[in-house]
Write a structure and sequence with these properties.
Layout (H helix, E strand, L loop, with lengths): L1 E4 L4 H11 L7 E5 L6 H5 L3 E4 L5 H7 L5 E4 L8 H17 L4 E7 L13 H9 L4 E7 L3 H13 L4 E3 L5 E2 L4 H13 L7 E3 L6 E2 H12 L5 E3 L2 H10 L7 H12 L9 H6 L6 H10 L1
Parallel strand pairs: 1-2, 1-4, 2-3, 4-5, 5-6, 6-9, 7-11
Antiparallel strand pairs: 8-10
Helix pairs in contact: 1-7, 4-5, 6-8, 6-12
């Protein structure tokens, strides 16, 4: 049996949908904090179990009988120290449950990511790989497309694409592609001990994003690099919450430093086909 944690979240749901295309529902279970929000999954024949990374006893019960477990580490808004403790508890619970395989989602291009908000992921990866249960690490960001799509939306609401990205380039992948690759790793043998960098297939820049905004709006919109202070005022003027601005500026600082700018072939290899182009991943995010 394959168990997917965090299945009420957008990414977890996508993974389950892809598993269902190849496996009977009886071979899939999910753990969620609120089973009441998973009635549709139960209606499709999937076993729904209540679990919380902060509740070891409930987590142990949820893992009963699971051979392969996905620790879905896409809870990006959680404070790093707390998330690190949660993931450590989940990894330990998987080992105690004697599952044969552990798959854990980590963060894209982690080795080059200076953001404080992801400081816990290296320790989580090391713990996952530290013996006991055969582990696979999937470095991905299922929200990177949405982060840069916001720049496109804001450009369409103003007279330019304003961002403190300098000449950075970025490799967002389509969440559906990432979820399909995750589902393949969960159901296929041969990925034990591997770390996969799941980027989009090509790097795009903010001039490309401005061109997309121009195409969609029918207006002449160009990219205008901005300093952090200018961008802060611009974002606040469009209603972005002030308490979240620090993390957003950290994103751009990391991008200017070269984070997430290199496309890898891992996603294509896992999918067995070309992934969605990075600019089209952003286009899809705009349509959601």
């Amino acid at each position: 049996m394959i168990l997917v944690t965090g299945a009420n979240g957008a990414f977890g749901r996508l993974v389950v949908d892809h598993l269902l295309t190849r496996l009977p529902a009886a071979e899939i279970a999910v753990s969620v904090r609120d089973p009441g929000r998973s009635a549709d999954l139960a209606g499709r024949g999937i076993t729904v179990r209540r679990a919380d990374f902060d509740d070891p006893a409930a987590l142990a019960r949820a893992l009963d009988g699971a051979d392969t477990v996905l620790i879905n580490g896409t809870n990006y808004g959680t404070e790093p120290a707390r998330r690190g403790r949660q993931h450590a508890a989940a990894i330990d619970a998987v080992r105690s449950a004697a599952a044969k395989r552990l798959v854990i989602t980590s963060y894209q291009d982690l080795s080059h990511c200076p953001m404080p908000a992801v400081a816990d992921f290296p320790g989580t990866e090391a713990r996952a790989m530290a013996g006991g249960t055969a582990a696979t690490i999937l470095r991905l960001s299922s929200v990177l497309d949405a982060v840069v799509a916001r720049d496109v939306r804001w450009a369409m609401a103003s007279d330019a694409l304003v961002a403190p990205a300098g000449r950075a380039r970025i490799t967002p992948a389509a969440p559906s592609d990432l979820a399909e690759a995750t589902a393949r790793v969960l159901r296929e043998p041969g990925h034990e001990g591997m770390t996969y960098e799941l980027s989009g297939p090509d790097a795009i820049g903010w001039d490309d994003l401005a061109a997309l905004a121009a195409e969609l709006s029918g207006r002449d919109l160009r990219y205008r690099p901005a300093a952090d202070d200018e961008y802060r005022a611009f974002a606040l003027g469009l209603g972005f919450p002030e308490q979240a601005l620090g993390m957003l500026l950290d994103y751009y600082a990391a991008l200017r430093a070269g984070w997430a700018d290199a496309a890898t072939g891992d996603l294509a290899r896992l999918l067995g086909r070309p992934p969605t182009a990075s600019i089209d991943a952003v286009r899809q995010a705009l349509a959601r």
